[in-house]
Design a protein that fits this description.
By secondary structure, the protein is mostly beta strands. The protein has a domain at about 20-145: 6 Propeller (Neuraminidase). It has helices at about 1-15, 150-160, 165-180, 180-185, 380-385, and strands spanning about 20-25, 30-40, 45-55, 65-70, 75, 80-85, 95, 105-110, 120-125, 140-145, 190, 195, 205-210, 215-220, 230, 240-245, 250-255, 265-270, 280-285, 295, 300-305, 315-320, 330-335, 345-355, 360-365, 370-380. Strands 2, 3, 4, 5 and 6 form a five-stranded antiparallel β-sheet that branches. Strands 11, 12, 13, 14 and 15 form a five-stranded antiparallel β-sheet that branches. The protein starts with a helix and ends with a helix.
């Protein structure tokens, strides 16, 4: 009886322990698989997409692939093509389910082998819960932006540096010249992180430009059929914004550090639902020049997944804040450690919280043996338990 009681206690303790599971969506392969995005469908199934090919913006065979996870079987389907424009690279896809349960798929088409030539495309579907293969799309269009006040903001930001001499001054001068170029200012804005729907119904699609190293928001007030641009988020190399909303309505954008040392995640704020933004500044969060994502959990806590390094991408951590980003009290590593350098990369996370409360993250998983997209599932309590 004592042995049975002990066994039952052990089983109960294991069941009560914070749960974690993870797997590669498909086996490691030589192809470049990168920049995933995950969404939970109403059925409880998962849909994940990423870009796949022999390279990135300069490789014409790059297309968007996807796979489905079936809740009943607990298995992933084989990858299938979600978008492919022959002869043109397609990258950085994003999936999003709005409050009307419409599925948005957004991705950039790279016109001329430079990030600055990205053209944003998107599709909308209400028929997307097939067992396999792509959704049936009902609407497709482009998102073309005219950034609000970009010339004035760029001149204000770069003006002091442009008055000096040296490489920084020359870069600042070129930036000011580009801000006067309508074509350059309107092309090249594209996605990386999940959109955010505000209580008003406004949809914000975070975007960025590698030409400017600025962030921006594409704004829709008609459920995603027409778009306008916010002011750019200006700063010392601040791109790939991830946006979360505070209880008081303030929007907070955390951004990749694409600028000079010290390498820290940048932060910017908006008090008008994403139209205008403060100048980006450094936080204390390390960032080696790679994407991060921050989302609000249903209990009000925030979770951020990022590379906790100033150089390299071999350590990926999940952090929890219970004070809307003022502090990050709990951390746990999903892959790697900052103290152990390896010849692998775990980066570009995509984060959601499912209806059952579980947190799902997909990310690029690069090793000397090959590349894949990894999916992990865990609970908030698992992060709080620490490494």
């Amino acid at each position: 009886m004592r042995m049975i009681a002990a066994l039952l206690l052990t089983v109960a303790a294991a069941a009560a322990a914070p749960q974690y599971s993870g797997e590669l969506i498909f086996p490691l392969e030589k192809w470049h698989n990168h920049s995933s995005s995950i969404v939970e469908l109403p059925s409880g199934d998962l849909l994940v997409c990423w870009f796949h090919g022999s390279g990135e913006r300069t490789a014409d065979d790059v297309l968007i692939q996807a796979a489905r996870w079936n809740r009943a079987t607990g298995k992933w389907t084989a990858p299938f093509t979600l978008a492919d424009t022959p002869g043109f690279p397609e990258t950085n896809p994003v999936l999003f389910l709005d409050s009307r349960q419409r599925l948005f798929f957004l991705w950039p088409l790279i016109i001329a082998h430079k990030w600055e030539t990205a053209l944003m495309k998107y599709r909308i579907s209400t028929d997307y819960q097939q067992a396999s293969g792509p959704p049936k799309w009902e609407f497709q269009d482009n998102i073309v932006l005219m950034p609000k006040d970009i010339a004035a903001l760029t001149k204000d930001f770069a003006g002091t540096a442009a008055a000096g001499t040296g490489p920084r001054a020359e870069q600042a001068k070129r930036l000011i010249e580009k801000a006067e170029d309508e074509y350059f200012s309107r092309m090249g804005w594209f996605t990386r992180t999940h959109p955010l729907e505000l209580p008003s119904g406004r949809i914000l699609v975070p975007m960025y430009s590698d030409g400017y190293s600025f962030g921006i928001m594409a704004i829709s007030d008609d459920r995603g059929y027409t778009w306008s641009a916010s002011q750019p988020i200006v700063g010392e190399g601040c791109i790939q914004p991830s946006v979360v909303r505070k209880k008081d309505g303030t929007l907070v954008a955390y951004l990749r550090d694409n600028g000079p040392p010290p390498k820290r995640a940048h932060i910017s704020f908006s008090q008008d639902d994403g139209v205008t933004w403060t100048r980006a500044r450094d936080t204390e969060i390390p960032n080696p020049g790679t994407s991060l994502e921050n989302v609000r959990l249903r209990n009000g806590n925030w979770i951020m997944v990022y590379n906790d390094l100033e150089q390299g991408r071999y350590s990926l951590v999940a952090a929890i804040s219970d004070d809307e980003g003022a502090t990050w009290k709990w951390k746990r590593h999903l892959d790697g450690r900052p103290t152990t350098q390896v010849n692998s990369q775990y980066h570009y996370p995509s984060v959601i919280q499912a209806r059952d409360g579980a947190i799902h993250v997909t990310y690029s998983y690069f090793t000397p043996e090959g590349k894949a997209i990894k999916h992990v599932r865990f609970e908030e309590a698992w992060v709080k338990a620490g490494d």
